[in-house]
Design a protein that fits this description.
With 189 residues, this protein is α/β, with parallel strands linked by helices. Helices cover 38% and strands 21% of the residues. Strand 3 and strand 4 form a beta hairpin. Helix 1 packs across helix 5 and helix 2 packs across helix 3.
């Protein structure tokens, strides 16, 4: 069983903002896998699907970003995935717009959603896929930046391409494992 959790904030004001990258990637996966309608459970919207015989739960916590850990703990307790079968997808201001970085484990860095997850889960030994949203411009407040929408059509296209790449990376993890996905995802360039 794979549990793929996209971090974000529920509600239309937050839709398609930089901080909702995780939700956007889950939306792409739901569409690619024709996953149907979600269930409300574990403080999340959850779609279940199969890829080559592997069960997957595609999850969007409804607890708001800074309390994401509460939903993730509920999901882990319900589905009981092995450590390498829990994947978190979220935004990263330290990566250029549209750039992906997959790691098998690690710290939360400066991301409050991941701090909540790691703090409440009590471990950090699970894969995480970060999608770059770019550094905040000079003069911007960080919260305003991550809650902002993409400014240009070019930015929107770059991010949509990143969502597609991130969804493909998640499916590579399911099919071939984290190491194979890291080789494919973390290409320098």
């Amino acid at each position: 069983m794979f549990v793929i959790v996209g971090l974000g904030n529920p509600g239309s004001p937050y839709a398609r903002t930089r901080h909702n990258v995780g939700f956007d990637v889950i939306d792409v996966l739901v569409e690619k896998l024709n996953a149907g309608a979600p269930r409300k459970m574990c403080s999340a919207l959850v779609w279940e699907a199969r890829v080559e015989g592997e069960r997957m739960a595609l999850c969007k916590p409804q607890t708001y970003m800074n309390d994401s850990g509460r939903s993730v703990v509920e999901l882990v307790n319900w589905y009981k995935p092995e450590n390498d079968r829990l994947l978190l997808v979220y935004d990263d201001i330290d990566l250029p717009l549209g750039k992906l970085r997959l790691r098998a484990s690690g710290s939360a860095g400066t991301h409050n959603g991941m701090r909540s997850v790691i703090g409440l889960l009590g471990r950090q030994d699970f894969p995480r896929l970060r999608v770059g949203v770019g550094a905040k411009p000079e003069g911007w407040d960080l919260a305003d930046w991550v809650l902002s929408h993409y400014q240009t059509e070019e930015e929107r296209k770059t991010q949509f391409d990143a969502f597609l790449h991130a969804a493909d990376t998640a499916l590579t993890i399911v099919r071939e494992g984290v190491e194979a996905a890291m080789r494919a995802c973390n290409v320098k360039g």
